[in-house]
Amino acid sequence: MKKLSRIYVALILMFLYVPIFVLIVFSFNETKSRSVFSGFTLDWYARLFNNDIIISSLINTLIIAVLASVASTILGTLAAIGINGMRKVPKAVIMNVTNMPIINPEIVTGVSLMLLFVFFAARMHLEFGFVTLVIAHITFDVPYVILNIMPKFKQMDPHLYEAAQDLGCSPFQAFKRVILPEIMPGVISGFLMAFTYSLDDFVISYFTSGSTSQTLPITIYSMTRRKISPEINALSTLIFVVVVVVLIVKNIIENRQAKKRGLYRG
Q1: Residues 6 or more apart in contact with residue 250 via CB below 8 angstroms
Q2: What DSSP line would sit under 166-220, residue for residue?
Q3: What is the SS3 assignment for 99?
Q4: Are the beta carbons of 61 and 201 closer than 8 angstroms?
Q5: Residue 228 and residue 83: Cα distance in Å, rounded?
């Protein structure tokens, strides 16, 4: 059974990562061929950084992802604190409502937000573009932040907050020095997940973007409709490397925090 499980895991990993490996290899291909590797070159990376359309879309995507992630992390953390303080039944109801955007198909969320922005555009002169993209990304990022923080409250002693106040802390000091350090791994995980989803999102961004502001996935989609360029392979490789580095850093930080907590409690 162990051998079969290992073979199964190996096949799943191959299915997931072999296409990415092929993409990385052909990002260094000398020609535009997607089937024959004719030689090693870095020309596609050089052309990528000289492509103004891709670079401007990348910068726009990063700005939107950072703003949406920061805002959704703050809102999600405050919401998680409020939900944690609720009674059992209201808490269950609110959590189900919070999880609905995660379960809901992206196309439904995208069309709904588009109709909402159209409604406000007719009355408040709201134009589709940067603002609508940031609002849309915050909308679907907040539930993921809450989902990452709530388990940390379950792992935490529920009487810590009251104990800190009994020992002389004000409510804000008790939150800052006791609650926040305990839930910080969840906050960091929520931020990174929100950032990753904002960076990757296509469907919702497609319905809420305008001609003046587009994200990188939309730009890549418009490029692939004409002809796939190896510059896209180079860009995808860089994004994959950045995401892997972020995940490694995240795991290192969480492991160090877990060791510190273990030493402190020991």
Answers
A1: 188, 189, 192
A2: HTT--HHHHIIIIIHHHHHHHHHHHHHHHHHHHHH--HHHHHH--SS---HHHHH
A3: helix
A4: no
A5: 47
pLDDT confidence tier of residue 265, bands split at 50, 70 and 90: low
pLDDT tens digits, 12-29: 988 888 888 888 888 888
Nearest to 134 by CA among 30, 204, 218, 52: 204
pTM for the full model?
0.81
| pLDDT-based confidence at residue 184 (cuts at 50, 70, 90) | confident
24 Cβ neighbours under 8 A, 6+ residues apart: 233, 237, 240
Q: Which two tokens stand for residue 263?
A: 């030493």
Percent of the chain that is helix, strand, coil (3-state, to 5): 80, 0, 20
Rounded to the nearest angstrom, the gap between the alpha carbon of residue 163 and the centroid of all alpha carbons in its chain is 35
Q: How many CA atoms lie within 13 A of 10 on its CB side?
A: 6
Which sign, positive or negative, has the C-alpha torsion 176, 163, 82, 170? negative
pLDDT for 262: 63
pLDDT of residue 266: 52
The pLDDT value recorded for residue 89 is 87
* Percent share of the chain, pLDDT over 90: 12
In the chain, the domains with their CATH numbers are 1-41 (no CATH), 52-265 (1.10.3720.10)
Mapping DSSP to helix (H, G, I), strand (E, B) and coil, where does residue 28 land?
A: coil
Of 94 and 256, more confident: 94
Judge whether 238 and 58 are in contact, CB under 8 Å.
no
Please state, rounded to an integer, the average pLDDT across all residues of the chain.
84
> 74: burial class by Cβ within 10 Å (0-12, 13-18, 19+)?
middle
